Amino acid sequence: MIKELVADEAVLSTPCEPATADDAGLAQDLVDTLASVDDAVCLAANQIGVTKCVVVYQDDDGTPHVMYNPKVLMGLGGQKVVESCLSHPDPVRVTRFAKVKVSYDELVDGQLKARRRDFVGWTAQMIQHMVDHCKGKLV
């Protein structure tokens, strides 16, 4: 279901609780909401008012990918970039890594399965942005 985007700093600055397999409905809400927003490429659950650690991003083909409980384990090639956010009106300058190693859970047959993967470039930047959201860190 498409949800309204939240700009309330009290919600956005609250660290998210760990997600479980029971949050599959929330994940679908994120996918639906992301698809409904022009030019949006990633979204965290607290951006729709739910402080759970669930995020979604679109790959270069526009396919959505859901991550439960993502954590950046390592980053290489820090650089200053300018980012926009659906929850913040003005672009901001932040430091992001060009390559990150991420641990996350993926829903498979109704259960969360642990995954670990390296991401580079734009996808790495999106994931770092969403992990910040999960930590309650505002850009």
UniProtKB/TrEMBL annotation:
GO terms for molecular function: peptide deformylase activity. Pfam families: Pep_deformylase (PF01327). It comes from the Bacteria. Belongs to the polypeptide deformylase family. This is Peptide deformylase.
